[in-house]
Amino acid sequence: KQEVTQIPAALSVPEGENLVLNCSFTDSAIYNLQWFRQDPGKGLTSLLLIQSSQREQTSGRLNASLDKSSGRSTLYIAASQPGDSATYLCAVSLVRDDKIIFGKGTRLHILP
Amino acid sequence: NAGVTQTPKFQVLKTGQSMTLQCAQDMNHNSMYWYRQDPGMGLRLIYYSASEGTTDKGEVPNGYNVSRLNKREFSLRLESAAPSQTSVYFCASSEKGDLPFSNTEAFFGQGTRLTVV
Predict the structure, then answer these.
(1) All residues at 6 or more sequence positions from A7 whose CB lies less than 8 Å from its CB, including other chains
(2) Residue A89 near chain B (CB below 8 Å)
(3) pLDDT digits (tens, 9 = 90+) for A39-63
């Protein structure tokens, strides 16, 4: 059974700092890994998608990496801003049965 | 381009009532999913459909039924609602390519906030 773990569960950092969110998964047979952002009471916003054949993807101040062999992904946020405060979720798409499995998320608070 | 559309956005049910949550996508995706989200639990997969005419259980299927009406539509039914089914429900769709080629990201609806009293 695929398990997706996100550490830490919550994180508070001062504005301007660079930070890393972690995601680990137990089954390396994945199509892709996707990072989402969710604001309180809102839906999911897709941030980055990394295909299984890729090592990283970048969008603006965000960089996501994927190491399939070790079952890990990181989301790097550069020069954090108060507007980055949200919950960040990672999800893996499985080869064997078409499921998409989520971690429980990291709740990020950027202190002004 | 509407993407994934869910209806209704909000619903209050009494214990024992039934209802159907509707989901439609306009991206010609084969795969569709239903999730529930509870505080601190992330998104948990209820049911999914890898293609038109097929459905499979996810992590938390008890108390729910689904129908893949056609390629566009995937509905979730609560036959006899219980307070434990109070949650936010999300529908999603995606498409799988043939390995080693790329496949698409998952797209999500805006959610249905369901309260069972």
Answers:
(1) A22, A24, A106
(2) yes
(3) 998 999 999 999 888 999 999 999 9
Q: Give the pLDDT confidence of B11-41 residue by residue, as tens digits.
A: 999 999 999 999 999 988 889 999 999 987 8
Half-sphere exposure of B12 (CA within 13 A, CB side): 1
For A104, which residue in chain B has the nearest alpha carbon? B42
Binary contact (A104, B58; C-beta < 8 A): no
* A43: nearest CB among B31, B50, B110: B110
Query: In the 8-state DSSP scheme, what is residue B79?
Result: S
Are A32 and B44 an interchain contact pair (Cβ–Cβ within 8 Å)?
no
DSSP symbols for B26-39? SS--SEEEEEEE-T
Question: What chain B residue is nearest to A30 in terms of C-alpha separation?
Answer: B99
